[in-house]
């Protein structure tokens, strides 16, 4: 199960990803995030209702770090995300995205 909802304020959007953020949903997750990034400079990914992640989701997050003209960050980071990222050797990616503030470029 996976769902995605977005709420927008002027100049900033919050994308809430819920459920399983795994390879079976990776195309949909990727498409949704690309659509939001094409419209908005500041995007927060809310992971508070995510159930689990896998390598495909970590790869999507890794690609988001490479968007120099966009400010992408993570909010409501559950322990399972940091634990899985750590096992996959991607803890730095999660730390970087969760440490970004609304003022970062």
From TrEMBL:
Gene3D superfamilies: STAS domain. Pfam families: STAS_2. SUPFAM superfamilies: SpoIIaa-like. Residues 2-105 form the STAS domain. This is STAS domain-containing protein.
